[in-house]
Amino acid sequence: MRFIDMTDITVVAGNGGHGCVSFQKTRKGSSFLKKPNGSNGGDGGNVWLLADPNVNTLNYFHFHHIFRAGHGQCGRSRGCTGKKGKDIFVKVPYGTRVSDKKTNELLGEIDSHKKWLMVAKGGRHGFGNGHFKYAPRHKKLCSTHGGAGEFQHLNLELLLIADVGILGLPNSGKSSFIRVISSAKPKVADYPFTTLVPYLGVVQINDYDRFVIADIPGIIKGASNGSGLGMRFLKHLEHCQILLHFIDIAPLDNSDPLENIITIRHELNNYSKKLTYKPCWLIFNKIDLLERYVVEKKIEYIISSLQWKGRYYSISSTHNTNISLLCDSIMKFIIYHGQN
């Protein structure tokens, strides 16, 4: 099924019920105008977005665009207030960002801290003439109409919730890595842009510890200006605690790994400075393709040239080299980061 991480919907809250004009029956000859008993209407129903852990994409909204709450009932005589309109709860994935389609104003984000969001408020109820029983005489003949419910055009944007995000050039071994360490099965092949949509994988370290990792399509030079696929999906890395920058230590196109790193860092900085400040580790992949001393020499040159102060690892997903070490280090980082 097509992966949808951005869509728009229309939400319509319910109208408030009208107030009622009625009068209490009295003994013959008495003035019925002194005893109004028309009741208020009910409030209109609200529209809520509700986070559901069983929903992972916005695909449902490809076929469903309009959501309406119930209208409030009109008031009745003898003090019978109109029933409130039924609220409607629209289920969305965790990490859904909501904004106004016309103004692009951010209305809220549904995550682990805020699991529901009201996006359209129901209209207020109208007043029956019983509400005006202590008002001047002419008011006792009056009632008011219920208010209209809010009407909103919304943009929904999904940001995948993951602890770890993987980025890098196409064919740097990101998908192979995530297949080895988790149950996710992204497509793997020897041509660029094998990964066309983001993938989430769950990495189980032991009976108690695990983390969620996100693989996004590769980033290429000029991506911040619209080239390639990766920049569209970089938003999914915004919630990650740590980023893994994958580098092919022996590129088939004979490109320079150092220049490739600089390219990715440049495109990342052009997209969002917030991402460049996230903890990031360099992961030198495919070390099985070169002699050990060549790998060490290349890595030493790259780290020295970049004046890199962060962590870096050398791995081979094909031969499972240093994979457990990397995963254990990630888990320890996440646990420590969560405690501080």
TrEMBL record:
EC number(s) stated in the UniProt entry for this protein: 3.6.5.-
All residue ranges annotated as the Obg domain in the record: 1-161
PROSITE patterns linked: G_OBG, GTP1_OBG, OBG
Keyword terms of this UniProt record: Cytoplasm, GTP-binding, Hydrolase, Magnesium, Metal-binding, Nucleotide-binding
Binding positions for Mg(2+) per the UniProt entry: S175, T195
Subcellular location: Cytoplasm
Family: Belongs to the TRAFAC class OBG-HflX-like GTPase superfamily. OBG GTPase family.
Task performed by this protein: An essential GTPase which binds GTP, GDP and possibly (p)ppGpp with moderate affinity, with high nucleotide exchange rates and a fairly low GTP hydrolysis rate. Plays a role in control of the cell cycle, stress response, ribosome biogenesis and in those bacteria that undergo differentiation, in morphogenesis control.
HAMAP family: GTPase_Obg (MF_01454)
Protein name, entry field: GTPase Obg
Organism: Candidatus Blochmannia vicinus (nom. nud.)
Gene name of the record: cgtA
